[in-house]
User: What shape does this take?
Amino acid sequence: MQILETTRLVLHPFTDEDCEFILELLNEEAFLRYVGDKGVRTLEDARTYIQRGPQASYNEHGFGLYRVDLKETGEPIGMCGLLQRDTLEYPDMGFALLERFWGNGYASESASAVLKFGRNELALDRIDAITSPDNHPSIGLLEKIGFQFKKRVVLANGEPEVKLFSYEHTLGSNMTSRRA
Assistant: This one.
């Protein structure tokens, strides 16, 4: 089932068949450095990650991280979507691409589509995003598509400080969150 389509990309919900792709993506050097080690080392770990992460989020929140595929070939190249963290009031955007696909504008294209989806389909007035303070490519992408730096935050005790960015789409004076 397709969620979003852009000029060059298609975004789909993750399925159990995406284990090999998830195993590769979550163990790339850049993912480990900028996003963190999710402890995914086997295909079974990848299946558990998909079920407890993206699929659980689809069921609980109506959104989550989606697999990003090249439209022309169907090859999976990354993930992009929205998360609802317990430690943040508003949903936040997450994205990661396999390093061999960096520099082609795919991250910006998928993130812009997810932002539009969040505003128009999910009626979110605010979407946040977090990055490592030294993740300059992601910071640049967020600023390019309209996010503004708000503050530095620590999401949980013992975790490193991250930068919090927000995109606010105000149709009225009320800010709404998807949190129940």
User: Anything to note?
Assistant: Residues 4-123 form a domain with the Aminopeptidase fold (CATH 3.40.630.30). Residues 171-180 have pLDDT under 50 and may be disordered.
